[in-house]
Amino acid sequence: MQTKYVDSELVKHSMIGFLGIEVISTENYFVKAKMPVNDHTSQPFGVLCGGASLAFAEIVAGYGSYLFCSENEIPVGSSVTGNHISSVKTGEDVFVFAEASCLHHGKRTHLWNVDIKDKDGKLVSSCRVTNFIVEDKSKNWK
User: Fold this and answer.
1) pLDDT tens by residue, 47-69
2) Which pLDDT belongs to residue 1?
3) Annotated active-site residue in 22, 58, 73, 92
4) Rounded mean pLDDT of 96-120?
5) Count of domains observed in the chain
6) Burial code of 70-98, b = ≥16 C-beta within 10 A, e = fewer?
7) pLDDT of residue 141 exceeding 70
8) DSSP assigned state of 107
9) Is residue 3 part of a domain?
10) Among 44, 51, 102, 126, which is most exposed with the fewest C-beta within 10 angstroms?
């Protein structure tokens, strides 16, 4: 796994920035990140939205796959599933943490397990993410 530069302006103006996701650490086949539980990530009832949790899991697993990709490749999400175990109330300085482990690192597919936990380490959601590794054609997008 290598450290790669990600354009901060691209991140800021994407779902990563909107959700306030920050990568904390990367190690071999492991990524840890945090996301605030606030108005952008909660249900109208003041608790973390399951959809935000699934987006968090897919983004963190995608970042992990990105670190394995060559210069001409990018990861694209193929499947994300999750089980929501407990809730987290919104609040100032309230975060959830994703711990993503790569279970399969093939040439064209990566499988990740992503556990989302609260500040005390209590399991909030457990997710599986499959990424396809494809040729980067974004330079041709207009």
Assistant:
1) 999 999 999 999 999 999 999 99
2) 55
3) 58
4) 98
5) 1
6) eeeebbebeebebebeebbebeeebbbbb
7) no
8) S
9) no
10) 44
| pLDDT score at 142 | 41
What global pTM score does this model have?
A: 0.92
Whether 58 is catalytic is: yes
133 half-sphere exposure, CB direction, 13 A CA radius: 20
The answer to whether position 2 is within a domain reads no
Domain residues for 118? 8-140
- DSSP assignment of 10-75 equals HHHTSHHHHHT-EEEEEETTEEEEEEE-STTTB-TTSBB-HHHHHHHHHHHHHHHHHHHS-TTEEE
CATH of the domain at 52: 3.10.129.10
The answer to whether residue 126 is domain-embedded is yes
DSSP 8-class letter at 89: B
